[in-house]
Amino acid sequence: MSRSPLSRRSLLRGGLGAGGLLLLAACGDSPDPASPNGAAWEFTDDRGKKVTRPQRPTTIVAQISAAAALWDLGIRPVGTFGESRNADGTPTMAAGSIDLSKVTSISETFGEFNLEKYATLKPELLITQLQVKNELWYVPATSVEPIEAHNPIVAISHLETTVPAVIDRYAALAKALGADLAAEPVTKAKTEFDQASKGLREAKLDALKVLFISATADNAYLGIAPAFADLRMLSDLGVRFVTPKADAADPHWETLSWEQVGKYPADVILYDERTRDIFTKTRIPTYQQMPAVKAGQTIAWNPTLPASWAGFAPALRKLTADLSRMRPLG
To answer: DSSP secondary-structure letter at 261?
Structure first.
């Protein structure tokens, strides 16, 4: 899921100075790494674009949650972009198991991309997501052409698909980049993910009506489950989501004022962990009056989990345990 419900289609502004162009020209000038038999490297991404390199790239920069997904599969990017640390310096949820001391952060803010810093890493490949149609996630539109002039971009889609399919795409990319998918940590993580998925499915929790909510101080954003890979996966595993009416401008959310937050009856509120304080400390009166909240049937959910078997297995186990304690309220 995306970083913010308010900026799914942000129009990213900004320019690239002459210094950035000169530095970026150095990208890809270093000798290409060895590939098996010296073969050329290629990968077709989720835009249908065939990305090629003379040999398999090893110097990789990736959007933070994409980097975390690859990290769990044994690929080690040298740089990331997107929020990797919280204000107190601790890793964000999106960073997953990345050792942040071993990577360089290009930028920490949506809509920003430090091309000069990027160029110093001499990257051979940039990897990001598709969270919105035709938009490279966290890559400002003004930066795409200068980057692609010197090294290719691979995009993995999280849009209108489900987590297992997204993980499979990262696994295919990781394998193409030289990862050993038969390595014990990877196979163990996949087994645990499969077991956790089976556990949620077999819990038969479809008697519960679940509503996903993200929020700001001014508005509640009700999630449309089919639009998100994680919520769609939960639906496939038997979680029955309330289906709000999507805004015409955005198929992912229905935006409501807090006065309207009780519009849809629900047995369980699954709330956005990124905005935990709004749900746990602010005590908005209309939210506090929702039946699920009054019954104590609220659960935090992390929408920025890396799309990896290792990332989702513990989250699925915890969600199954939490939902199993809930009851229908109607």
So the answer is: G
Reduced 3-state DSSP string for 63-113:
EHHHHHHHHCCCCCCCEEECCCECCCCCECHHHCCCCHHHCEEEECCCCCC
Q: What is the CA radius of gyration of the chain?
A: 21
49 DSSP 8-state letter: P
Indicate the number of domains in the chain. 2
Question: Tens digits of per-residue pLDDT, 54-101?
Answer: 999 999 999 999 999 999 999 999 999 999 998 899 999 999 999 999
Whole-angstrom Cα distance, residue 178 to residue 227? 32
Dist. CA 287–CA 147, nearest whole Å: 45
| Average pLDDT of the chain, as a whole number | 88
Is pLDDT at 3 greater than 60 in this prediction?
A: no
pTM: 0.87
What is the extent of the structural domain holding 254?
203-324
| CATH code: domain of residue 100 | 3.40.50.1980
Residue 168 lies in a domain: yes
